[in-house]
Each structure stands twice: as structure tokens, then as C-alpha cells.
Amino acid sequence: MNAENKIFEVPLYAYERSPDQDNEAAVRHPVVIIGAGPIGLGLAIDLAQQDVPVVILDDNDKVSFGSRAVCYAKRPLEILDRLGCGQPMVDKGVEWNVGKVFFDERKIYEFDLLPEDGHERPAFINLQQYYFEEYLVNRVRELQAEGKAIEIRGNNKVSAIGNHADHATLEVDTPEGPYNIEADWLIACDGAGSPTRQMLGLDFVGRVFEDNFLIADVIMEADFPTERWFWFDPPFNKGQSALLHKQPDNVWRIDLQLGWDIDKEEEKKPENVIPRLKAMLGEDVQFELEWVSIYTFQCRRMEKFHHGRVIFAGDAAHQVSPFGARGANSGLQDTDNLAWKLKLVMDGMAPESLLDSYDMERIHGADENIMNSSRSTDFITPKSEMSRILRDAVLDLAEQHEFARPLVNAGRLSVPCTYDGSPLNTADALDGPERTRPGSPCPDVKLGDDYLLRQLGDKFTLLTIDADAPESLDEDGIEVTRLALSAKADTTGMLKARYLGNEDSAVYLIRPDQHVAARRPSFDENLFRAAIRRATGKE
Fold first, then answer.
1. CATH of the domain at 485
2. Kind and range of the H or E element at 243?
3. For 175-189, what is each residue's pLDDT tens digit?
4. How many CB atoms neighbour CB 378 within 10 A?
5. Residue 236 burial by CB count (10 A; 0-12/13-18/19+): exposed, middle or buried?
6. Which helix (H) or strand (E) holds 301?
7. What does DSSP say about strands 27-34 and 54-57: parallel, antiparallel, or unpaired?
């Protein structure tokens, strides 16, 4: 199926009457997720794969219209591999590692986001959000065929919520009238406008930016390379900025900064959009508009993401500007952090206080994203003449001098968050690389015909590198299995460079979300058992 088939017009989860609607008493479900966007679907798949029954409620019955989120980073692609739908994304998406920065008509410099080998996934792919959502829905259908308890209810709009000590209550509107259900746990993945957040009267504070940007998805044949191109003060959009990305099906994403005081409805009209695009692309270029939107943006987050039996994830919990591709990418990292913790709590294998670490770790991630996103926005849209002069001076210097290039901020692109200071981390005991310190996501390594992250999977793992350890450990019901590797047998040197550093051997405790919980040069049973207890919130 391609864009011409208009995926976004086809109901993928059309309304069907649920048995819950015929029950006199409200049916209790283990987990209910509000929102069938990428974050809600991703979380539901993760939970279903761990045999947690889940119901997804969505007020729509089809995927999103327009490409919306378009850039998906390496770490989220690795998460999607674990969810069983990474490969369709990569197969359809446009891979890219290189970005170029222009000032006026000059190319200032270019950068490579993944200059090292040994990773299965590229730095980024570009893919329209409607494809992403379609692949996630397809994965839901696969899980249903396998007998997993996962259900999407289309045209089911949540109209009221109650948050109680041991459950949440929901009133749900449908084409056949309202009904009530209950949830042991309710996860709100219902976007930046989050009706859930509003119904519960919760905060969403931060900074609002005044600049307006035009997004246009343009269908055209073009020979531009598959790179991210960003312009400061281009001749076709003087005094503003522009961005160009390639997507599948000859669709190109174009962002044009418009400034502050504009008539949004007027600017969206084709007769006003097309001249702007012709000025950029050339009068002779033939193109067709697929989707047009005007956006302003905000950098905000909730004070807390976990509120009793209601938990927030993705844009419902935090919102950033689009510069740096941090929206959907950070939302998937929310679900990656939450699912295994919720599973342990529901199974009685960890205290409910483990969910407090979801707040701590993902608020840390949100703050990092908001900081980087705000800095990008301030650099792209200077708020005073002096700020503009300083920015332009940096751009001029960057053309000739490498030292100035890190100062250029055309949207620092999304990187995975390291959970420094997390209560789940054990103090570092290895003279190893900074990139794999406790709290860090594991970097990939090519292992023959396979890759490290594929072998780690989604369980607690004891990764040993040229070190002895038991094949498995059971610590109060938490099963940890060993993955034994040897850097001596790795002729590429990647395993040593990424996991050993100055050491000759190492033992890592890896969490189900593939973040490092602890590392030591050798195995000590008492210390690693303590690390397991800490990583599951028991110590």
C-alpha cells in the first residue's frame, strides 16, 4: 500500500460493539490505553508481548492524516525491532545519516550522525506517520492471531475518568451510546492536547513560542540526495529558515518559517503555499500538495507523569518543538521505560514504588529534550537584533572553522537519554567507556551475522565479556540469563571499544529496556544480586 492508496482514509480499526457494552457492571481490565497513535500502540504491543492483557481506546478509526512525525532515530528503531515491527519501518523508510547546513546560498558544513560501523540500524529514517501507524496496527493483528489479549476499539471516546486508590474508572462514548469500564492501570497516550490530562485537572507548564511554521508534504520527482538540509536566511525565505527532507513515495517534507503575526488559515491556502514552494524549488518544478499545516510549538511537560493509577506517556506528558525529532522518538522511549516496570508491578515481582523511577528517568529525559529543543529554537529564531548578529557570526565562522560548528544549532538531533542519577543504577565499578556507564542505553555491536541488541532482547541479562559467571541467576523471582561474549574473538575491536575500554573483562547487568543497570570487571554474586534488587526497586 502506498500514499496514493490513501491509507489515512481507510478505517483500520472500525467500530465494533464490545461485550463490555452489554454488561450491567463495569468490566475491569488490567490495562487500558487511551490513544491509538504511535505511542499508545507501541506500549500496547510491548505489554501484549509480555502477556499483559490490554485494551486501546481511540476516538478515531484510522491512522493519522499527513506525515506528521517523520524522522525516526536509531534508538527508537531498535525498540521497534524488539516490538516486532522495526523491519517494515526500515524497509519502507528513507535512510539517512548526513545533514547539511546552509546560510543564505552557501553550504556552511555537513555532518554524519553515525560515522562508526557495527550498528544494525541507521542514524535516522524518514517515514510518514500513517505508515508507522499502519505497521503498528499490523503488528497488533499478528499478536491477536497468536492469541495475545490485545484489542483496539475504534470510535470509543473517553468522556470521563475517575482515579481511585486501586483502579481507574472510564466512561466511554460510542456510536451506539456510552458505557463504563474500569482499569487496574490507565495509560494516557492521547497527545499534546490530552483530554485525560484536562479531565483530571493536571498541570502542563512550560514555554510557548510565537513563531509560525508552514509544513508542506509535496509529491514530486526530484534528484535531491537523501539528506537533511537546513537553511538559515535562504534567498527564497529571506530572514527566516527552511528545512527539506525526503520521504517514501516521492514525498518531500518542507518546513518554512513564517514569522509571528500571520493569518494561519490564509497561509494554508494552496494559492499562498504554492508560490512559496516555487520560490524554493524553482518555477519549472512540477509538484502536488499532499498535506499542509501551520504550527506553532511549545516546550512543556507535566510536573509528574505518574498519578496513582493513571500514567502519562508521549506528548500527553511532555511536548517539545519539532527541531531535533524528539516527539515520537522520546515517546517510544517512554513506553520502553514503562512497560517492563508495569509488568513487574502487576505480577507482584516489584513494589509499586518502582513506577516512581519511570517519573524520575523520563522526566530527566523530557527535561533534556526540552533544553535542547529550546536552545535550537532560540538559535533558529533569534528574539533580538543582537541575538541575530551573534548567530550570523557563528554561521560565518562555521564555514571555515571547525571549532564554531558545535555552536550552530539547526536542531540538535535526537539521541537516547542516559539515566544518570537514577535510583535503579548501581555505582560504577568499571574503568570502561563513558557511553556504557550505568544508566546508558547499550550501543549495538556486530557479532558475526547477528547484532548484540538482537541477542539482549527484552529480559534482564547478565552480559559477560571474557568473564566467568553462572548461566542464570534467580533473585526473588527475577530471572536473569547470561549472554557470554569474548572481545578476544572480535577482530573488529568494536566490543572492546564500546564495553571494555581499559579493562580486560567486564560483567554488565542489562535491564529489559537495554539500559545498563550495573557493571564490574568480574562477577561477584552478592554484588550482582544486590544490583538486581536495586534495578527492580527492592533496595
1. 3.40.30.120
2. strand 241-247
3. 999 999 999 999 999
4. 14
5. middle
6. strand 298-301
7. parallel
Backbone angles phi, psi at 150, to 5 degrees: -135, 130
CA atoms of 430 and 416, how far apart (whole Å): 22
Grid coordinates given for 81: 525491532
Q: Would you mind telling me the total number of residues written for the chain in this entry?
A: 539
Cell numbers given for 367: 527535561
Q: In DSSP terms, which residues pair with 98 in a beta bridge?
A: 112
Prediction pTM value: 0.94
Q: Is residue 9 part of a domain?
A: yes
Measured CA to CA, the distance from residue 31 to residue 150 in angstroms comes to 10
Check residue 1 and give its pLDDT. 37
Number of folded domains that form the chain:
2
User: For residue 67, what pLDDT band results from cuts at 50, 70 and 90?
Assistant: low
**Residue 345 is placed in which grid cell?**
508491578
**373 lies in a domain?**
no
515 phi and psi angles, rounded to 5 deg: -100, 150
Q: pLDDT tens digits for 332-349?
A: 999 999 999 999 999 999
Distance CA 62, CA 37 (A): 10
Instruction: Check which CATH number belongs to the domain holding 71 and give it.
Output: 3.50.50.60
Domain boundary among 310, 338, 368: 368
Answer yes or no: is 321 within a domain.
Answer: yes
Sheet with 472-475, strands from edge to edge, namely 472-475, 478-485, 461-465, 506-510, 516-520
Q: Kindly tell me the sign of the dihedral angle through the C-alpha atoms of 423, 416, 472, 525.
A: negative
- Alpha-carbon distance of 179 to 193, in angstroms, equals 23
Check whether residue 38 and residue 159 sit in a common domain. yes
At a CB cut-off of 8 Å and minimum separation 6, what does 30 contact?
52, 53, 54, 183, 184, 185, 346
Distance between CA atoms of 462 and 240, rounded to whole angstroms? 51
28 and 139 in a single domain? The answer is yes
